[in-house]
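Journal club prep, notes for RB
We'll compare a predicted complex against what the paper describes. Inputs for the zinc ion case:
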Amino acid sequence: MDLGAITKYSALHAKPNGLILQYGTAGFRTKAEHLDHVMFRMGLLAVLRSKQTKSTIGVMVTASHNPEEDNGVKLVDPLGEMLAPSWEEHATYLANAEEQDMQRVLIDISEKEAVNLQQDAFVVIGRDTRPSSEKLSQSVIDGVTVLGGQFHDYGLLTTPQLHYMVYCRNTGGRYGKATIEGYYQKLSKAFVELTKQASCSGDEYRSLKVDCANGIGALKLREMEHYFSQGLSVQLFNDGSKGKLNHLCGADFVKSHQKPPQGMEIKSNERCCSFDGDADRIVYYYHDADGHFHLIDGDKIATLISSFLKELLVEIGESLNIGVVQTAYANGSSTRYLEEVMKVPVYCTKTGVKHLHHKAQEFDIGVYFEANGHGTALFSTAVEMKIKQSAEQLEDKKRKAAKMLENIIDLFNQVADRRVISTTNAERQAVTPPGLQEAINDLVKKYKLSRAFVRPSGTEDVVRVYAEADSQESADHLAHEVSLAVFQLAGGIGERPQPGF
Ligand code: 16G
Ligand code: ZN
């Protein structure tokens, strides 16, 4: 480690005095102008992690669904997964070190993790379309090179694409080619195979309107659409040519406002979906014949996928264990449906993809989704082979799927942001301040089919309040009452919470 060079280059990416940032649920995230030093240092850290694991490590520059002015960075571990928790701590430690302590902190991390500094290192980098992303990814590269690491800069990529590249590179190409073409070929082939067997009554069934949140999804889907040939026709909206990133559009907007994004006209029964700013979330929606809006969010996607897979297993007579993983934000009616009607076991973890993913790995088939549209299904390799051999009865399932969604009538909910709390039981119960959970329990009892919880955000300095009940009015009132309880018992500052409705 050339400590002199590190000190010299670090000074070119100096940390603003007194700035403290946390490696949060999905990496560092804040206003772009505060991130230069963090990027440089994450370049350094990626090299250490690469040396330690003797594998390629990924660095993604994005702030996902957050406003255009924000940015962020996260590291991707060898198997395409989120950074190991002990290294998240190192990331926070390194990001907050004062300039004069940089050398000591780097040595400290290397010693704690027994990093062989002579080992080669390789880092791959991707970034979203934010105006700040290019310069910030250059700072990552500066960090990588000053520690002697090799790198490949993929430039503009979606977050899932960067995860894919890392995985391909660390599995000797067995999973796929670590190129953008490799990604399109693998995914489009899988899609075409899957839909080939499904019946199709008319062209509209193979067309999809896609709201790209004015982000990277537009560029990448435009490249990918040729690979579908006749398999799918996509129409892109909010492609970044005029609107602002994530502004009045994107998965987060559609989910929280329960309406289509701006800039997309939808006719009844047209299939539509929205990505978020780095295209790792998706929600689907349509207007029915009466013009009512229907959202197929992460909860419903998980229900469809897991029911489909469960039936398939029954048909092929396999008794493999399947589990669905959700967070406290999952609509109560989706959880009940899965458990009581589909008889699929459901587990609840803390918010954030890494927690869900980890739990889902415990099953032969693990399906996980956050209500906001982050998620996927995981299969053990043996299961994948079996399913491929017997996925023939798709037609029938498609019809059943439409029926099934009609059975899940979402309970109404309300989310508000307040301050200071700690939780347990997958964030569904407040531990501190004393008396708060009891107060919530009493409030919940006043409403039918109701549930409420409060949790500190993993990405912002606020506490989120969630409430669910059998009518919007009840959900709104419950949310307000819980917010007031938080304000009183958790030392609320500023104005008393106003009703969010
Ligand atoms: C991050 C998480 C997302 C989660 C959100 C919650 C990933 C890739 N992203 O964006 O899954 O829903 O945080 O934010 O894990 P909050 O803690 O501020 O409510
Ligand atoms: Zn995202």
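Talking point for the session: The two ends are 57 Å apart (CA to CA).
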